[in-house]
Automatic annotation (TrEMBL):
Keywords: Glycosidase, Hydrolase
Family (UniProt): Belongs to the glycosyl hydrolase 1 family.
One GO BP annotation of this record: carbohydrate catabolic process
One Pfam family from the record: Glyco_hydro_1
Protein name (Swiss-Prot/TrEMBL): 6-phospho-beta-glucosidase
GO molecular function: beta-glucosidase activity
Organism of this sequence: Mesocricetibacter intestinalis
Length: 489
């Protein structure tokens, strides 16, 4: 008989959000513009095959700032959490949340990114958020940089491509640690740090590639990433000094890769893709660049500019736990002409014939989550935390209700595999469902790509009453939390 272990008694159930996808109030309380504020909505008919609209170049920023470009910027609007947070947090408390992951808008604290003194109004706003959460016994987890940095640092330095931004980030982090040391014990540095080289250096690090000569662009991605690794390590060092009982995590978009066939070439392709995905955690957990990435750099004439103590800083300041997002697995082949590519994904892959796909073309693979958990724990023996997992889908209101059995089925199947991993011996700290309340999509700036347990009446054009409606999944997740994962019916 297959005996399953229970989730730990202190398991942290909850949800995860990002400031630039929920807050709004982009020009209130002294906030400056951020990189995310430059991302305009692009209708689906005008997007490319990958259905993603996050690219921003120098000309677009110039046109936006000068008023030449007149578009909609949903990430400036969010769902108005800036004003509605008491109501929204109350709904999450009703579900029984143990934790809510939020991010802090860097540009709400330092409007240009490099000021001498922080913006008090911004700090006070997050004080209110944390106080509201703690009132209900909900622990906050804070991401320091979730796909946005102050536009001032993008314009002045080209984001993390310049080493000076490391100093500004660490200063920003230390201001937050000192301010919220009694309120926040779980922190993350950069959201899905692999975005920088995986898909969009602008989204991940504020780097505009058209400002870099073409021959140097690949190198620029790794240089910006190196600066982020340094910033993360130095922030971790500061956290341990300022809040000794706090824990710092890294955050990875875990993209589990399978070979399409048993052909050793397909298997080697999958192994290399998995290595490319895990080299970020190799550095943030083990504190050094792995040999396989050094070989890749050598073969492609890539190199990093380092200062003398960089390697020591990375080695001496590893993270305390590994946080990651998991939405899908990816199937790859060394024979590009043998299978149809998958549309709708950030990364190149082919159709896995054994898996269903979501409304947005993401391959649904619950067992892959168990594999990912075991792989990470076997590799690092560090506590793990699932800080994003969910299903983006179209929802319909029927007589004032949203019957989202498809979301419940997705979440149930993944939580079942989490329990299998815990029974395998994986040390898992918690589970934070992505988008517990509908929010603006990171990849497409849509509202119709809904993840939440709570429906928000806003459409892709920004129209609607902003009313909040509990979906069927709201009541289901409430039951899951109350039973600590034993009741998934």
């Amino acid at each position: 008989m297959n005996q399953l272990k229970s989730f730990p008694a202190n398991f942290l159930w909850g949800g995860a959000t990002a400031a630039n996808q929920i807050e709004g109030g982009f020009d209130l309380g002294g906030k400056g513009l951020s990189s995310a504020d430059m991302v305009a909505y692009v209708p689906k008919s005008e997007r490319g095959a990958n259905n993603i609209s996050i690219e921003v170049d120098s000309q677009r920023i110039q046109d936006i700032l000068s008023g030449v470009f007149q578009g909609r910027f949903p990430k400036r609007e969010g769902i108005d959490f800036y004003h509605s947070y008491p109501q929204d947090i109350h709904l999450m408390a009703e579900m029984g949340f143990k934790m809510l992951r939020i991010s802090i808008h860097w540009s709400r604290i330092f409007p240009n990114g490099d000021e001498k003194q922080p913006n008090e109004a911004g700090l006070a706003f997050y004080d209110k958020i944390f106080d509201e959460l703690l009132k209900y016994g909900i622990q906050p987890m804070v991401t320091l940089c979730h796909y946005e940095i102050p536009l001032g640092l993008v314009q002045k330095y080209n984001g993390f491509l310049h080493r000076a931004v490391v100093t500004h980030f660490v200063n920003y982090a230390e201001v937050l640690f000192k301010r919220y040391k009694d309120k926040v014990k779980y922190w993350l540095t950069f959201n899905e740090i692999n975005m920088v080289t995986m898909h969009s250096p602008y989204t991940g690090a504020g780097v505009i590639l058209d400002r870099v000569p073409k021959a140097q662009r690949e190198n620029a991605k790794y240089q910006a990433l190196h600066h982020q690794f340094l910033a993360s390590a130095l922030a971790t060092k500061s956290l341990h000094k300022i809040i000794p009982d706090a824990r710092m995590g890294c955050m990875l978009a875990r993209m589990l890769h399978y070979g399409l066939t048993a052909d050793p070439e397909d298997q080697r392709e999958a192994q290399w893709r998995n290595q490319q995905n895990l080299f970020y955690t190799d550095i943030q957990v083990r504190g050094e660049y792995p040999n396989y990435i050094r070989r890749y750099w050598s073969a492609n004439n890539l190199s990093l500019q380092k200062q003398r103590d960089d390697d020591i800083i990375l080695k001496q300041n590893p993270v305390d736990f590994i946080a990651f997002s998991y939405y899908m697995s990816v199937c790859v082949t060394a024979h590009k002409d043998q299978s149809k590519p998958m549309d709708g994904n950030f990364i190149e892959g082919v159709r896995n014939p054994y898996l269903p796909i979501s409304d947005w073309g993401w391959q649904i693979d619950p067992i892959g989550l168990r594999i990912a958990l075991n792989d990470l724990y076997d590799r690092y023996q560090k506590p793990l935390f699932i800080v994003e997992n969910g299903l983006g889908a179209y929802d319909k209101i029927e007589k004032g209700k949203i019957h989202d059995d498809y979301r419940i089925n997705y979440l149930r199947s993944h939580i079942c595999q989490m329990q299998e991993a815990v029974s395998d011996g994986v040390e898992l700290l918690g589970y934070l469902a992505w988008g517990p309340i509908d929010l603006v999509s990171m990849s497409t700036s849509e509202m119709s790509k809904r993840y939440g347990f709570i429906f928000v009446d806003i459409d892709d054009e920004g129209k609607g009453s902003r009313q909040r409606i509990r979906k069927d999944s709201f009541f289901w997740y409430k039951k899951v939390i109350a039973s600590n994962g034993t009741d998934l019916t």
